[in-house]
Structure formats: structure tokens, C-alpha cells
Design brief:
Strand content: under 5%
Oligomer: single chain
Structural class: mainly alpha
Helix content: over 70%
Order of helices and strands: HHH
Radius of gyration: 29 Å
Largest sheet: none
Distance between the termini: 39 Å
Shape: rod-shaped
Number of helices: 3
């Protein structure tokens, strides 16, 4: 009977250790999800704040540049068309390099998302 009691005791301790491991793993994953979620939300908030200001600056700069070019060309419509052409060229460059931009973004976000904080 002593052998069976010893096996039962060892099995009980192993079950307790397994349950403790599962509980700690669950807590770790909840914390990791919270970390990644807060990181993503803060990045979106920063992107919206900075992006809004940059877009406003770009709009005002584009109008000012178009008016200035219109005065230089002595034709306001030609100034606006020149600024539109510049935007189309920039858009075309971004479209052509979209795969490398996507790869860069995935690499940067992936490095942050999959960084391993566990010390064994």
C-alpha cells in the first residue's frame, strides 16, 4: 500500500504543478494581449494625431504652392494643375514601391509583436 500512496501523492503534486503552470500561462497570455492591445491603440492614437496635423499642413501648403505657381505661370489654373501633377507623381512612386513599404511595415510591427519577454 505504501507504493500506491507514494504514487498517488506524486500524481497529486504533478497535477497541482500542471494546474499552476496552466494558470500562470493564462495570466501571462492575458498580460501579453493587454500589452499588444495597448501598444496598438497608442500607435493608432499617435498616428491619428500626427496624421491629422500633417494632412492639414499638406493641404495648406498645397494651396499656397498652387497659388504661388499660378502667379509665376501667370495662370492660377496652371498652378493648381502643377501641384496636382506633383501629387500624382508622388502617388505613383508610392504605388510602385508599395511592396517594399509593406515589407518594411510588417518587419517593424512583427519585431514588436513577437518580441519575447520570457526569461527562462
Amino acid at each position: 500500500m505504501n507504493v500506491f500512496e507514494s504514487i498517488g501523492e506524486k500524481t497529486g503534486r504533478a497535477a497541482d504543478i500542471g494546474e499552476n503552470f496552466l494558470e500562470k500561462s493564462h495570466q501571462y497570455f492575458k498580460l501579453k494581449v493587454f500589452q499588444q492591445l495597448t501598444y496598438a491603440v497608442s500607435m493608432v492614437a499617435k498616428l491619428l494625431a500626427v496624421g491629422t496635423l500633417l494632412v492639414l499642413g499638406l493641404i495648406f501648403g498645397a494651396f499656397a504652392g498652387a497659388i504661388h505657381l499660378g502667379k509665376l505661370f501667370e495662370n492660377l489654373a496652371l498652378g493648381y494643375l502643377s501641384v496636382a501633377a506633383i501629387f500624382f507623381i508622388i502617388g505613383l512612386i508610392i504605388y510602385i514601391t508599395r511592396k517594399s513599404i509593406s515589407a518594411y511595415v510588417i518587419m517593424k510591427i512583427g519585431a514588436k509583436f513577437y518580441e519575447d519577454d520570457i526569461d527562462y
